[in-house]
Amino acid sequence: MNGDDVTIGWADAREANLRNWEDRVPVHEEAYGLDAYDDPDHRGTVVDHDLAAMRPFLPDGSLAGLDLCHLQCHIGTDTIGLARAGARVTGVDFSPSALEAAARLAAKHGIDATWVETDVLDARAAVDGDFDVVYTSIGAITWLADLDRWAAQVAALLRPGGLFYIRDGHPALYALDEESDHLVTRYRYFGNGTSTAWDIATSYVSDAQIAHTRTYEWPHPLSEVVNALLGAGLRLERLDEGTVLPWQFSKRMVKVDGGFAWPDAERAMMPCTFTVVARRD
Fold it and tell me: Which InterPro entries does this one have (predicted)?
């Protein structure tokens, strides 16, 4: 079943994915190292990386005083990091348990945040107001079937002149055989209208068992991501590709500053992430 192409409706796939992500919440609360946020200066390695990448495109190089919407925020760790960088934050996710965990974490650390339960594909209708920054990172958009609809939500949430930022796993990485001893392609790079089905009993950060193991994802080549954003009327400001991933995609990956990477001999052969910065005119 893992990696097989299947035809499934969005509603059924979404329901299966929601059950899975609901199961992940207590696992991730245990495994994410939330005690690190007891340090008021802690923002997390993902946010620290993304802030450095966003800084050249922000007013005065800072999020201070800006309204920011974090799509697919999960349990809110990165949302809190962004708030600590000075933003007024709204976190959006489809998992009620994740948002409850996010609200608990924010309250514990005195973070003023708004949490909205909705599918990201319906975000504009569910979220009040508009934003200087819309942010997505990381491991997010493979869960979405329709990137044109996703990009339309992003554009509609942004104020004129507002910035969209995404760093996510590279689709070329996702096409690799994560169990191989070499860089070997195993899965589709391009979309074909079907979902990819997975049956995995654990999460990416823990060996703890998850009850609802079936999930569905959609391959999106880099061209599809960029063209969806352009089609929604955004202007591309920067496209980057990176060699370090915040989680261990393959057991062959080695620990480096900021996450995991392929061994030295292979590091220049395969990107691990892509980053897009775009703006609404």
Answer: Methyltransf_12, SAM-dependent_MTases_sf
